[in-house]
């Protein structure tokens, strides 16, 4: 996608405004690479958990956490690639993009980051509520949530 069509408009700047962008490009390339490594590890982990039926039943919490971490890894990759593109284009054209708040809010990497950032704590919260119910309301827990018969 051409640079000019991604944003409402761009503002021309002088050379001093883009000073140091080359280091930022390198930083975000490394950041994206680390995100890719983490995402690869999570894919392998998900393959193990989902590929063996007893693990699918026993490790549902770990599967959900691995999914959240995979989404975070994807968000890190997309964030890095987006910023590499922005900084590299600014270095080449000496222009900086100006975007509306809506254009910023619908960025794919931002939506993925939001999902990944919320999935992990929501999973932990649900796990805590389940443990709280098991302690405070054991009969209700065993009848409705545990799935094992009462003794």
Question: What is the compact description of this entry?
Answer:
The protein has helices spanning 3-6, 21-51, 53-58, 60-93, 101-105, 108-136, 138-146, and strands at residues 9-12, 95-98. It has 151 residues and is mainly alpha-helical. It is elongated and about 75 Å long.
Residue windows where pLDDT falls under 50 for at least 5 positions: 1-5
Order of helices and strands: HEHHHEHHH
**Would you tell me the overall average pLDDT?**
89
Portion in helices: over 70%
Note the main sheet. Answer: 2 strands, antiparallel
Shape: elongated
Radius of gyration from the CA trace?
22 Å
Beta-strand percent range: 5-15%
User: Which structural class is indicated by helix and strand composition?
Assistant: mainly alpha
Question: Can you list the strand order of the major beta sheet?
Answer: 1-2
Number of strands: 2
Number of helices: 7
First-to-last CA distance: 64 Å
Give an overview in words.
- The chain is elongated and about 75 Å long.
- The longest helix has 34 residues, at 60-93.
- It has 151 residues and is mainly α.
- The protein has a two-stranded antiparallel sheet with strand order 1-2.
- α2 runs antiparallel to α4 and α4 runs antiparallel to α6 (108-136).
- The chain has 7 helices and 2 strands.
- The model is unreliable at 1-5 (pLDDT under 50).
- The chain crosses the membrane at residues 29-52, 59-81, 118-141.
- Keywords: Membrane, Transmembrane, Transmembrane helix.
């Amino acid at each position: 996608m051409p640079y000019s069509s991604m944003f409402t408009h761009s503002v021309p700047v002088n050379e001093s405004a883009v000073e140091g962008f080359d280091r930022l490009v390198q930083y975000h390339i490394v950041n994206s690479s680390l995100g890719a490594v983490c995402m690869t590890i999570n894919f392998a982990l998900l393959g193990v958990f989902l590929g063996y039926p007893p693990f699918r039943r026993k490790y549902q919490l770990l599967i959900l956490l691995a999914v959240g971490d995979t989404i975070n890894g994807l968000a890190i990759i997309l964030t890095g690639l987006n910023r590499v593109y922005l900084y590299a284009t600014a270095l080449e054209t000496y222009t900086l993009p100006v975007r509306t708040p809506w254009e910023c809010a619908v960025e794919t990497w931002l939506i993925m980051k939001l999902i990944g950032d919320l999935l992990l704590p929501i999973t932990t919260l649900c796990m805590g509520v389940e443990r709280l119910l098991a302690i405070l309301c054991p009969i209700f827990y065993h009848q409705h949530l545990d799935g094992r018969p009462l003794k």
